[in-house]
Amino acid sequence: MQNSTDHMALAADREEDAPQQPSQFAQKPNFPPLKPDEISDGQIQFREIPVPGRRLTPLKKYWLEIYTPIYEDMKIDVRTYVKDRRRRVQLKTRSDTPDISNFQKCADFVHAFMLGFDVIDAVALLRVEELYVESFEIKDVKTLRGEHLSRAIGRLSGKGGRTRIAIENATRTRIVIADTRIHILGSFASIKIARDSLCSLILGSPAAKVYSKLRTVAARVPERF
């Protein structure tokens, strides 16, 4: 019994004296977060969003509502050029910009306003994650000309905009119908439901049929904003 105890003690001593084998897996690197002035190699980023002629007056009217969240909340410099032919809004990162993603959010916000969305709706792109803007044309769904195209646009909007508002409320999206172009603001799932409803109207489906299907499908969509 004593011999077995001695052998175990000697084996334990040999294990302690044996050199440690290196691990077969490399140690996980630990990189510190980048500072604002280190983003993009310290280079200042610029971006210009063109201003359509029809959005020039709303831009001047709501400029303070556009400027405040971009400059004060997102820490992005913003200014406008409206005197020459190349009317545009210019965005520029700052040394104290906390996150480079703020630059893209501000660009999406200004672009959504230029597409025709209200400021109170477009500003959700700065506040809420996973919101997008999708655009398509009526001709992408069906080739229509003349009176057929005019009737399709009328079906999308409805009398007094009732059809458009009903789709917005059911899918929790915002829709802009600019001539033959359609812009939808919302989450991915909500945009898909709204787009399917609009495509059904373009193809000639009655509004009542679209409403009934919309109520069934939209009830399963979680509220985003």
Secondary structure: elements and pairs:
Elements: H1 2-17, E1 46-50, H2 56-61, H3 63-73, E2 76-81, E3 88-93, H4 101-115, H5 119-122, H6 124-127, E4 132-137, H7 138-141, H8 147-157, H9 162-171, E5 174-178, E6 181-186, H10 188-202, H11 207-218
Antiparallel strand pairs: 1-3, 2-3, 4-6, 5-6
Helix pairs in contact: 9-11, 10-11
SS summary, helix count: 11
How far apart, in Å, are the first and last alpha carbons? 76 Å
* Strand residues, percent: 15-25%
Q: N-to-C SSE series?
A: HEHHEEHHHEHHHEEHH
Mean pLDDT reading: 83
Query: What would you report as the Rg, rounded to the nearest angstrom?
Result: 29 Å
Biggest sheet strand line-up: 1-3-2
Helix content: 40-55%
Low-confidence stretches: none
Instruction: Kindly name the structural category.
Output: alpha+beta
The main β sheet shows up as:
3 strands, antiparallel
Shape call:
globular
> Count of DSSP E strands?
6
Keywords: Nucleus, RNA-binding
Protein name: RNA-binding protein PNO1
GO cellular component, one term: nucleolus
InterPro entries: KH-I_PNO1_first, KH_dom, KH_dom_type_1_sf, KH_PNO1_2nd
Describe the fold and architecture.
The protein is an alpha+beta fold and 225 residues long. It is globular. It contains eleven helices and six strands. It is 48% helix and 15% strand. The strands form two sheets. The chain has a three-stranded antiparallel β-sheet. A three-stranded antiparallel β-sheet has the order 4-6-5, with helices on both faces. The chain starts with a helix and ends in a 7-residue tail after the last helix.
